[in-house]
Amino acid sequence: MQATRAIIKTKKDESAGKLLMKLDQMGVTARITKNEPEAIVLAEGQIDEGEIKSMPEVAQLTKVKAPFPLVSREWSKKDSIVEIAPGIAVGGGNVLIIAGPCAVEGEEQIVKTAQSIKDSGATALRGGAYKPRTSPYSFQGLGAEGLALLSGAKKATGLPIVTEVMTPEDIDFMLPHADILQVGSRNMQNFSLLKALGKVDKPVLLKRGMMATIDEWLQAAEYIMAGGNFNVILCERGIRSFEKRTRNTLDLNAVPLVKSLSHLPIIVDPSHGTGKSELVPSMSLAALAAGADGLIVEVHPNPKEAVSDGDQSLDFEQFGDLMKSVKRLLSIMPGKVLEGSKCSVAA
Ligand code: PEP
Ligand code: MN
């Protein structure tokens, strides 16, 4: 018999420890990936399906061929829905529109942006406090001050916050300020960061590495799920190609392909995907038409003055126009709901 992988769901109130012992006796390696509400066990070896299924601890066994078993559609047929905040989710028809500046630059900038994107119908606010910059001499972000400003913008608007985490050491400090922790393209294979995020119970937005294949990207997502955090949202943000007219080549093939390979929600970043604000509206609509579960779009009160990524940022009016088109498009797509209308201002 060939060595295979299977995902085993235990019955509620049955001991996963006992199951692990039995599998060990059969020569099958097994590890618990998640314990609540029932254990999800990843087993590897010569899986005797009939014998394992007959064990009293076992509720379900699924053999998986993909190199990213927990991420795969083979294991979980239904679209995963990731809860961001009360009443706001992404996946399974729930469309999440995240907008905001590349970097948090100051109070007025972030609060005004939050109010404007909310009025236009965005679901969540983005803004980098820790910026991964190609040059060490470029603006590195406001750090802790930026996080506090994001929390202020959330208080003013009720919008959940999406912000990038660059190192495992920053996670605990960032948790009170972030509703979604973003892993940037340059960190997609920062395995210690991915492992640490596996232990967190907040959603993670995993951007595709600019030179990563889809299999590498989905295996990066597997790192987070293998640690026990099943709240993973994928983000296609463009890959490097020979084309120099655009900053990246936005790989929209990834949307339907990832949907067939994985149950995880996938959103698209047309800002980094193109590098040009004038291309953002068309590529946003194309992404949603291709089946994306949402967008993350850079918006700045005055893109010409932005400290980073001004060329690809929309101003408030341009974003407002985009949202009108997004709403029109979603209204003719069966089963799609624009999230966010339910978010309220904190007391
Ligand atoms: C960003 O979102 O501002 C960013 C740095 O994106 P990426 O990691 O996709 O380059
Ligand atoms: Mn940016």
Describe the structure.
- There is one protein chain.
- This protein is an alpha/beta fold and 347 residues long.
- It has 2 domains: 4-64, Alpha-Beta Plaits (2-Layer Sandwich); 82-338, Aldolase class I (TIM Barrel, Alpha-Beta Barrel).
- It has 11 helices and 15 strands.
- Strands 7, 8, 9, 10, 11, 12, 13, 14 and 15 form a 9-stranded parallel β-sheet that branches. Strands 2-3-1-4 form a 4-stranded antiparallel β-sheet.
- Strand 8, helix 4 (144-157) and strand 9 (161-164) form a beta-alpha-beta unit.
- Helix 3 (107-120) packs parallel to helix 4 and helix 10 runs parallel beside helix 11.
- The longest helix has 16 residues, at 316-331.
- It is elongated.
- The relative contact order is 0.14.
- Bound molecules: phosphoenolpyruvate and manganese (II) ion.
- Phosphoenolpyruvate binds at residues 102, 128, 132, 184-186, 207, 237, 269, 272.
Please tag this protein with its features:
binds phosphoenolpyruvate; alpha/beta; 347 residues; binds manganese (II) ion; four-stranded antiparallel β-sheet; single chain; nine-stranded parallel β-sheet; 11 helices
Task: List the topology elements.
Layout: E1 4-10, H1 16-25, E2 29-34, E3 40-45, H2 49-53, E4 58-64, E5 82-85, E6 88-90, E7 94-100, H3 107-120, E8 124-126, H4 144-157, E9 161-164, H5 171-174, E10 180-183, H6 191-197, E11 204-207, H7 214-226, E12 232-236, H8 254-261, E13 266-268, H9 270-274, H10 280-289, E14 294-298, H11 316-331, E15 337-338
Parallel strand pairs: 7-8, 7-14, 7-15, 8-9, 9-10, 10-11, 11-12, 12-13
Antiparallel strand pairs: 1-3, 1-4, 2-3, 5-6
The protein binds phosphoenolpyruvate and manganese (II) ion.
